Amino acid sequence: MENLKALVLNCSLKKSDEQSNTDALLKDFTNVFDNKQVKSETIRIADYHVAYGIADDMGNGDEWPKILEKVKQADILILASPVWLGEKSSVSKKVLERLNGSSSETNEKGQPIFYNKVAGAVVTGNEDGAKNAAGDLIFGLAQLGFAIPPNPIAYWVGDAGPGPSYIEAEGYKNEFTQSNVQMASHNLVHLAKIFQKQPIPAEGNS
Fold it and tell me: For the whole prediction, is pTM greater than 0.85?
């Protein structure tokens, strides 16, 4: 059996030269992946020119195709977003739309290309809306063919209104958030291992 690969798409509005609270929470996931010998890579979507649209390649310097290729090679996908105005970020919405552009592509069995890949969501913010944002992300990924394990999300939100975010508020000390990190990360790896050994049959799914 080959080692599992995890791809983490951080849909922060910030580029990599800026500190990201979402990235800080994601490191708790990648630490678990490291301990379980799962090779992981984190991509900050804002670092790339990802065009609007629902095609594999929108042309004119669109860098989505190189990210999409990494999604195709991954066994585990985590879609992560901050909360803005009570919802997932516009960047995460764009990523879902671009993934949708590949929904008609099939594997060698004639199944949707994202079959036998598992997915989860991570959300951070200092305002309400984390479960709403995570629910949107999980539903979109499931509709595209990704498999969703039990307890597939981890989130952290601070007090209502403006205030300190995950890093400043030391959100890593929050027992509920860390408990969900452990459940989500371990369940993602467990389900990915099952699909590696026993992929979804073509019957009824092609």
Answer: yes
Q: Domain of residue 192: give its range.
A: 5-197
Distance CA 159, CA 169 (A): 10
Q: What is the pLDDT along the chain (206 residues), one digit of tens a residue?
A: 579 999 999 999 999 999 999 999 999 999 999 999 999 999 999 999 999 999 889 999 999 999 999 999 999 999 999 998 889 999 999 999 999 999 889 999 999 999 999 999 999 987 788 999 999 999 999 999 999 999 999 999 987 777 888 999 999 999 999 999 999 999 999 999 999 999 999 888 76
> Considering its fold, how many domains does the chain have in total?
1
Residue owning tokens 């300190």: 164
Q: Is residue 204 part of a domain?
A: no
Q: Which residue, chain included where needed, has tokens 């999409």?
A: 68
Q: How far, CA to CA in Å, does 84 sit from each of 26, 41, 62, 76?
A: 18, 25, 25, 26
Sign for the CA dihedral angle at 176, 136, 183, 28 comes to negative
Residue 169 resides in a domain: yes
C-alpha distances in Å from residue 115, one per residue of 6, 26, 29, 75, 200: 15, 24, 22, 10, 7
Question: Where residue 51 sits, what CATH number does that domain have?
Answer: 3.40.50.360
Residue closest to 52 by CA, chosen among 80, 93, 89: 93
